[in-house]
Amino acid sequence: MLRSRGCVLRLACTSSLVLASARVSAEGYSVSYNPYGSVAWETTLRCQSQHHDHASTASRITALSEAGYCAVTYMTYSGAYQAQTAAAWVSAGMPDPDPGVPLGWGEYRRWPPEEHGAPALPLNSLLFYLPGAEESGLRPDGGHTNHMHSLGLAQYLEGVGCASCGHLRSAVRNHNPLGLPEAQRYATDSELVAKATALGAIMTLNHPNGLPWYFDAIEPFPAAVEIYSNYHASYDEGCGSSFIARFKAVWDHVLETKSARIWGVAVNDWSSAWTPLGDPAIACWPQITEANRDRGKLQVLLTSYDLTAYMAAFAAGAFFAIEENNAIKSAYPTVTSIAVADNQIAISTAQADETITWIGNGQVIGSGASLPLDRLPANLAYARAEIDDGEGRVVYTQPFELAALPPPPPGEPAVPALPALLDAAIVLGLALVLSRSARKRAASAR
Ligand SMILES: [Zn+2]
Ligand SMILES: [Zn+2]
Question: Residue 289 C-alpha to ligand 1 middle, in angstroms?
């Protein structure tokens, strides 16, 4: 009994000590990149958008236009070897490019959308289309691997695998019946990112389900990663998986280890505004309700409602990823300004009553509308905020890249600030308490 009490005391003391010493080693930072730095908050245009939800028919586009979207991608899979989209290719009047390939072909590029069956715009809230598709990545051996979204890409890219392989399962290798140039053919995920980016795309790694380091080998790394997909959230809720936590862990990992300028994206994937209510398509999912469909989206801060402004805003990171788990849609918190100063980042919202949590290097580093920058944990690469309205809606800011402030110049002994002296006193006090209680315990044990 006595021993276990001592253990509890020791644990408590140890964690206080760790906390106190972490505070002692705290650093000051400046923001070296603010993704919202060019936003004119008074006049910015707020565009709710959807990059990835397989809105591949006119009726799905119409459903999005009635759900408050300003810009969407008229898309489904592309890249190679999708049996289901080979049929779409042929039914659209395109010749079957390679009848000898057993499992089909990637989809044609749906651009401009109005020439491929999409409604003419404007339509309800919908003002413009975004080029792009869900590209199928390849392993170096030609096997099917990661999916990526190619925002802004109007060309068809094709996964062809290695030059000397035959067909393997669903992978279509080493053939080029369309006579595509090398710039439009890729054999690996990394090559897909590099070639699509060279053609003007901004690439997003879709549904990154794996351990955080699982995607490290993709180089160049995509500009963004999905951190929320309604399709996968539905699995988590009904089928016991933990996709969304994994996606977010991947984001925090690559922000810390690769670049603090990798953006987080929320999408619907296969559970969107056009998904029928009631019985789900996936057996273990919950029933589809107004609340649990159409939950993943973006709000992009534009200077004008057009593709050029959209690409510039997305490239800069001037947007929010949004999770909206509520039957009332497009009602997420409105960020009215983000002010970055020498000593803090401050977020203002229209309601000003949300819970705001700050994350740095995957850990909670603060809460509330502002994050002081002068005393944060050491070695932070970035800080980002999650704005939760308590009713199922969360707005994720993009990361603010941090740079540690230089230490005081040598020869000028830094006068410790009062909080630092207090930290030192706390450490000293705890050490005394610990050594006294250790002596007592030793005495009573004898
Ligand atoms: Zn996918
Ligand atoms: Zn998808």
Answer: 23
